[in-house]
Amino acid sequence: MAQPRDPINPLSWLTPPAPPRDQTLPVQPVLGVIVPEERRAAAAGLLTKVQFVEVSYAEARLLGADSQTILGTVGYRTFLVRGVSPNNAGTCNANLQGSVLSVFCGSLGDFSYELRPVIVFLHQEPGSVSIGAMTAH
């Protein structure tokens, strides 16, 4: 897998707040797996020019998705998506509303933003992606 040549500024991955969405569309939680720290450079290399990329189940395994998670998602498509956490201890959630995939990472503590690529399992490719991060002291 490709490694980024220059460090990526995590703030460059954040998207502006999305405009209000159609409230009649349900918000659906999406199964996601945060790429472990030791594999983040490889994942970030795949996301240098795009917000998300479809990956095979084998690639998802190489990026840190466990076999049990993958077996539970047979029939889904697997995507690697940008994510940014305010620090290394944060958690990330993914939701789908209509065709908009939102990845939001949050934590307690400082603002040392980190790249946190996420593997998500969807029935179809998202139409757009919204990426956000927040921390509380």
Question: Would you spell out the secondary-structure blueprint of this structure?
Answer:
Elements: E1 27-30, E2 32-34, H1 40-46, E3 52-55, H2 57-62, H3 67-71, E4 77-81, E5 84-85, E6 91-97, E7 100-108, E8 114-115, E9 118-122, E10 128-136
Parallel strand pairs: 7-10
Antiparallel strand pairs: 1-6, 2-9, 3-4, 4-9, 5-8, 6-7
Task: Briefly characterize the structure.
By secondary structure, the chain is mainly beta. It has helices at residues 40-46, 57-62, 67-71, and strands at 27-30, 32-34, 52-55, 77-81, 84-85, 91-97, 100-108, 114-115, 118-122, 128-136. It is globular and about 40 Å long.
Euclidean distance between termini CA atoms:
36 Å
What is the H/E string? EEHEHHEEEEEEE
Helix proportion range: 10-25%
Derived structural class: mainly beta
Arithmetic mean pLDDT? 88
Name the poorly predicted regions.
none
Explain what you see.
The protein is mainly beta and 137 residues long. The protein has one domain (26-132). It is built from three helices and ten strands, in the order ββαβααβββββββ. The chain has helices spanning 40-46, 57-62, 67-71; strands at 27-30, 32-34, 52-55, 77-81, 84-85, 91-97, 100-108, 114-115, 118-122, 128-136. The strands form three sheets. A four-stranded mixed β-sheet has the order 1-6-7-10, with no helix packed on it. It has a four-stranded antiparallel β-sheet with strand order 2-9-4-3. A two-stranded antiparallel ribbon has the order 5-8. The protein starts with 26 loop residues before the first strand and ends with a strand. The mean pLDDT is 88.
